[in-house]
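User: What would this chain look like folded?
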Amino acid sequence: MGFSFSSIRFGYLKLTFLLLVSSILFGFFATPVDSSALKPKTEHGCSALKHFHDYQSKCAYLKTIDPCAGQGLIDYLSLLYCNFEKFPLLGQSLLFLWLLALFYVLGHTASEYFCSSLESLSKLLKLSPTVAGVTLLSLGNGAPDLFASLVSFMGESKGTYDVGLNTVVGGSSFVTCVVVGIISISLRSRRVRIERSAFIRDVCFFCAAIGSLGLILVYGKINLWGALGFCSLYAVYVAFVYLSWRFGGEGGEFDLESVHKRGSSLSEPILQRDDLVHDERVEDVVVVNDHQRYYLKLVVWVMTLPIYLPRTLTIPVVSEAKWSKPTAVASVTLAPVLLSFLWNWKRSPTSFEAGIVYLTGCLIGIALGLTALATTKKSNPPKKWLLPWLAGGFVMSMTWSYISAQELVALLTSLGYIFGVSPSILGLTVLAWGNSIGDLITNVTMALHDGDEGAQVAVSGCYAGPIFNTLFALGISLVGCAWEVYPTSIVIKTDPRLLESLGFLVIGLVWSFLVLFSNRMRLGGVMGVGLLVIYLVSLSIRIVQTVGDSY
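Assistant: Here's the prediction, encoded as structure tokens.
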């Protein structure tokens, strides 16, 4: 294999250090919560908006209360009701367009920057392929759910925890029912056989995760030690996978890079920078008389520039294919400035304190920029001191993912108040679908075009991803909240409908288990159709219940 236990152990220590630093960083940005932080808002707060019938009265009422969705940079309710009174349809349309843009930014940041940093880190830390697959690859694929969950639980706005819970449950249901169902139906004629031991392992651990979450919801509260125990179940899963691969020969060679390339090829930017930066390519377009295509790309590039440029100038990238010395120098210079802005925005310091923070950020940025300018080459990325570059890209991609998730959760919560829809149903559907669409495209494509091995990896990913989101993403959120109120417990209101969704999730797992074993572990149409029916029934019941509450 080419790796030793000492190198793996040293790699784990460095990776743990990076994750710890990143957690501390976001802990600074997150607003502390109190013992009632997970209790929903009362009827006298933002829910009272439904009693007002015109934009002017709603605007006046919003000025008398705290922001209803305070996670993000923008107060979307005030923006709509105080600025679009004469053009309500235009205001709502702009919010929906911004929602699509946020989904794109969150998914693209995870795919283009976050996963790229994780790939390079896995090589630098010399992690085994299997461990990299169930840790770094799951972290990359689950990044949108992870940050949405963190924002929902630890954000400034109280009462959005139900968005995080329903997003995790909704995403897990979508992936294990819809994605697995589509794969099963698509491969019914090929009679692909799934590895028995890996399937039993994944389903059993996922059932344990769902059961643990159900106990937390029924009990209604959890302390720091309980949250740590819940989150540590994922470490047990990773250890079990590694031991199965190491001593049981299970899983074969898992190529993290090839899987990411397969996913990133489906989520490339609408227009690559090089299409416009290099004059030679522009001339080639003119030679082949493809003016219309070029100008269409130009329009799209200009429209996406405000979304693309800020991340390019603040996230260091050191890959061979994307290396640009001017961009690299600019990114390490401006990244500390962005972090200082976020620090001041969250902490609301005095003008003197804010000035000190900005001055510190600028000085650090200038020092890093001059160092990068003097130590890097124009032709290729640096070969020495690669860990600081990768760590910087890792932290800044996490920062942008967190910012995007903040805005996304804030906007979804605001849309819930605008249209009288529970934010929890939006988390179960819109946010869960948006975060899971990448899994759908990547896993189905892998299953269809990479043979039996690709189908095995795709199906395993459909269970490893939800396990990560349930135990790690949700667990980290619970640990963060419990840490703030230690030694008391955080209170989570029991939601019978969320328990119903968990029940349907278990039914889907049991159906897959029974059908696969009766069919000698072969994927088939019966399994796929059954999973789709289970998901549609669960979703229909939840929507009917939500509609009934509005009357």
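Residues 1-43, 252-288 have pLDDT under 50 and may be disordered. If you want, I can go into more detail on any region.
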